[in-house]
Amino acid sequence: MSLASHYSYWVTIFLMIAGLFIVIARGNLVKKLVGLGIFQTSVYLLYIAPGKLIGGTAPIIASGFRAYSNPLPHVLILTAIVVGVATLALGLAIVVRIREAYGTIEEVEILEQDRREEA
Amino acid sequence: MSGLLDHLPALQVVLPLISAPLIVLVRRQRFAWLLTVAVSWISLAIAIALFVKVGQTGVISYAIGSWPPPWGIEYRVDALNAYVLVLVSLVAAVVAPYARISIAAELPREQEYLLFAMFCLCLTGLLGITITGDVFNVFVFLEISSLSTYVMIALGQRRKALVAAYQYLVMGTIGATFYVIGIGLLYLMTGTLNIADLAERLRDVKEIRPLLAAYAFITVGIGLKLALFPLHQWLPNAYTFAPSMVTAFLSATATKVSVYVLLRFYFTVFGASILFEGLPTADVLLALSVAGMVTASLVAVFQDDLKRMFAYSSVSQIAYITLGISLANEAGLTASIVHLLNHGITKGAIFLLIGGIALRCGVVSFDRLRGIGQRMPLTSFGLVISGLSLIGIPGTAGFVTKWYLVVAAIDRGYWWLVAVIVGSSLIAVAYVWRFVEVAYLSEPDERSVKRGEAPASMLGFAWVLVIGSLYFGFDTSFSVGGAREAAALLLGGAR
User: Fold this and answer.
1) How much is the pTM?
2) Has the ipTM of the complex gone over 0.90?
3) Cβ of B147 and A95 within 8 Å?
4) Which domain holds residue A47?
5) Among residues B232, B364, B248, B265, which one has the least CA distance to residue B308?
6) What's the CATH code of the domain at A49?
7) Contacts of B150 in chain A (CB under 8 A)
8) Residue B305's beta-bridge partner residues?
9) A115 and chain B: CB distance < 8 Å anywhere?
């Protein structure tokens, strides 16, 4: 169990942290959603990579094939992708409405407008 | 007919699920409302039937599509989730008929049916999370309920509702993704997603580190969804700017269902023993709960908006629930589970009554509510009674919870905790008193002179919950009885 043999986990963790960082560090509402998308994508890798068997095929019984990859993670992630798409679509729709209402998609300016409204 | 009755667990989720697209297809406001009311009442009937059946025959296991668990998805009803199902569908059954006038006043007419469609989807998600016995299925239903919640919040009148919905979307998605990471790690270690099977196989797992990581991810993820202090940042804005009936429904159900998921993972999946030895969870949860109880109540005292004040009060009330979990003895868990119901009903009543005030006065900030006690006597009186239940005055539902919490704290020998519980209740007195002072002891505001009581249908359904919060203070055979059975079940699973 060397570090290099599990490189897919390193990629996963890098994407996870990068995505989360973008969500926190960026003030642009669309960029935040991009970060959120990257963060969610990293989880797809977390599930898919261990399901793959090197040399394994699709799990259909046929002569000549002994090793099969695990299909369940793929199915789960198909669901998660759909959820991710729905979240992104809804998020962008809300950003469009925010832009209509505030005229900006920068978090700082939106908060500034809210503060002025209250004062 | 007996064939249909066997399928009650599936119908519980499927009925609200199919009514949502029906509403969108028909696009009639009245049809949308009638169907929502019918579905929520049928859901309540099914939930009660399941609760009774579980009491008689024990755990109900239902294999979706007849694929036997652990391969297929299992719906599994036991003493704990039957109780939560009753709570969720009860609140839905009260909020749905209330909603018609409230929604008509707060939303453009062409958007009304969409809100009812989202309400049905949200109900589907919450019931689904509760009833399913499959951890990935929990995630799917969690996202169904969350996505519909974001839409409902964004439909609020003011533009701040959009920002609140966006912030909740980002934080909620992070929470849900943390949860998926957690169950992904569990799946890697065990190869199963079925809750009962997972609990079985986790006992044989030797490598403890991935389990601790999974456990941490799930705790943080669900902690975000249930607004565990300090992960509650999304809650005050979401509750303040959402339409009134949405706030009432969410405050009474959404966070409660997340607490249920946490209970399920802590006690059924992981088993209390590994977990409280492996990591200092109990201590961390205890510290966060105490901090939440005190700070959120203090912040509530200084709010100028009635809705926001009770939103912060929700954060502190949720902390009482997590406090019971952190004590992890029978009285503590009973307090937590009974408070799901008690706080759900009390807070639901409060936000429904506030919806009536919003309808009559437009805004619910304190400076506009002076003398509201004379203008809207029944609404104000209902708010005061519910407020007493939040404080925990004997004779109200809130007292029952506080009683069990204090018993649990004494059982553990935490005398200082008893003082904290009483102290935070005193802070609750302060914010409830602010309403009393404005409503009864101030000169009436001229701008609200001619405005009368809220319409009878709104007031009536709000009072159903107010009376509920009094009833469960006197007769605890359902509330505490059910909660104690559920607590025994959870602790039994841990041994």
Assistant:
1) 0.94
2) yes
3) no
4) 4-118
5) B364
6) 1.10.287.3510
7) 90, 94
8) B365
9) no
